[in-house]
Specification:
- The complex is a heterotrimer of chains A (about 70), B (about 325) and C (about 325).
- Chain B is mainly α.
- In chain B, about 75% of the residues lie in helices and about 0% in strands.
- In chain B, α5 packs antiparallel against α11 and α6 (about 125-140) packs across α9 (about 185-210).
- Chain B is globular and about 75 Å long.
- Chain C has about 325 residues and is mainly α.
- Chain C has a two-stranded antiparallel sheet with strand order 1-2.
- The termini of chain C are close together.
- Classes of the chains: A mainly alpha (about 70), B mainly alpha (about 325), C mainly alpha (about 325).
- Chains A and B meet through α1 and α2 of A and α5 and α14 of B.
Amino acid sequence: MMDAHEPPALPPQKRFTPRSIAEGLATLLIAAGFIMLMQPFAMVLYTYSFVVLLAGTVLFIVGSKFPG
Amino acid sequence: MSDSTPIQRLADQAAAKTPPRVVKRIRGLSDRAIAWAFITPTILLLLAINIFPLIWTIQLSFTNYRANRPNAEVENVGIQNYERILTDSDIWFAMQATAHFVFWTIALQTLIGFSLAYLIDRKFRGHAFWTTIILIPMMLSPAVVGNFWRFLYQPQIGLFNYIVSFFTGLPPSSFEMLGTVNLAPWSIIIVDTWMWTPYVMLICLAGLRSIPDYIYEAAEVDRASKWRQFWTITIPMAAPFIMLAVLFRGIENFKMFDMVNLLTGGGPGSTTEVASITLKREAFEKWRTGYSSAFAIILFVAVFGLANIYVKALNKVKNR
Amino acid sequence: MSGKSSAHSVVEPTPVTKRIAGAVVIIYALISMIPLFWIFITGFKSPPDSISYPPKIVFEPTLEGYCNLFTTRTRQTPDYIQSLPPATETCDEITRSRNMVIAGASNYLPRFINSVVIAFGSTFLAVALGTLTAYGFSRFRVPLADDLLFFILSTRMMPPIAVAIPIYLMYRELGLSDTALGMILLYTAINVSLAVWLLKGFIDEIPREYEEAAMIDGYTRLQAFVKVVLPQAATGIAATAIFCLIFAWNEYAFAVLLTSGSAQTAPPFIPTIIGEGGMDWPAVAAGTTIFLIPILVFTVLLRKHLLRGITFGAVRK
């Protein structure tokens, strides 16, 4: 623990890149899909949860290829 | 000591048996060739045992195939299986049972696990020993342990009921953890929490230990109260680790099978019939292979989506 | 460990805080050990003691549970038992006192041996493949490395029942159903993902300079791998092997769906142990105890590497 006093140097990062936007959106879709899949309120939401999940997952895979 | 590793022994044996001409050729292998030679076997195995079956499942999910009637004619039914699952209120109910299980196990495990980690991080004497003791339940076989909890939950003779009645005064035969609609979902939550709180605790502990002392020292210089330090330093700095634990427990409990199958088997009725239990009933009891393949794909896509987020969380923690 | 934080550091908790924290943690640890303690002592109870009310902590220990675990018994008339030559072994004696005689060996031992064979076989394969692959990813520029690594990890995340459907069909076609080979291949495939991720972390930590120095001395890349990297990674390989072993040892979902007889492992077998008229809890407890002891040993051996193992090598401390 010799270097514990040196704050870690963070690489300069751009906040919004095509990739971070796509991944953020994909994460939102996946989270929404999960809530839709498991919520006890409306059958319609459950029915369309799979489409949302699939869209989120595909966007995540494609989005991770975007520049950023 | 190096001579005793099995891989090395194997490599030595292989080297001894290889004719010199071949050795010469292997020696001449380029780095590129070695890289591929090292990676390909694993990829091939995974293709054979994981990806090929997955593709087969996708194909089956569009048919009405039944594994117990291999000779019956198989019809292509398009997306009918998916339509039926996504409009089936029984399956929807199973997803809600899963949600109840996932939500409460994660909530309890995070709360207890983080508290324990925080206390262990006070570094009292013997904390390493007690940490190891606490970790034991998560290493055990969920099936074997789940089976034994059935004994602890027995109404009259079970230890769990006895302890509860000792502290509350309820007669120990008056409630049945596994057989009552209201209590059965909690019985599996209790066992899962007992088993996996150590997991959350261990990861939270790593998070707490990754916070450098100088940040607290600086806060102390600024006269920030302990309470304020906790909410503005401890929690935000440990958050990526907590997230990691929550995501992984979420994935694991979303597909939970072994422990629930042995404790309640989905009963009473279908109150604890979580997704994997429903899938097993459809696939291996009713033998509706095509239909259950579609359900498997739905669960798989859900888990795969979470796994993507999980790996992103892993990378975030890795850079710390 | 504490480095700069001396006794006067503002970060160091006060003795009172420490004592309270210690007390709470120890109480939690003791409570969480109750179920395991109960499994252990139930294994030494007689069947009536095991189901007595209130639950007995003080009882006369007997090996009946262990005898019942390893044998099958048949009920006989007292006259017939009287006519037998005197019992020579403890188990004979206990069984006869219950008006029964030992009819043969139970399935527990073969199931336990299956567990050992399948766990060690799959661990060996997974670690061997995993070491090679991890080295490949660690030292060479592999195209699409991140995607391949994610693909490898995601295979471990799949719900077991979802995978079991096509595996069941595939093994039926290939004749691998209920064979040790089939289970070894399956567990290898699942464990290899963990092995690759963990070992990549361990190999990443070995400085490349070691191999480069060896190669300057005239070693080929392969020799450098065998003579320099493998010994350096020995601890990591051992830790990874124990993780794989524990997974294969504990696995239930695939085992219960894909094996039924000759290749069945202990986890699906233990819940099927039943006695005359209800569960034979001492025998179940005995079987559980024997099954859990190796894991306890492994947990203690692994304690320094546990964190790495459960985070796929991401958290290293």
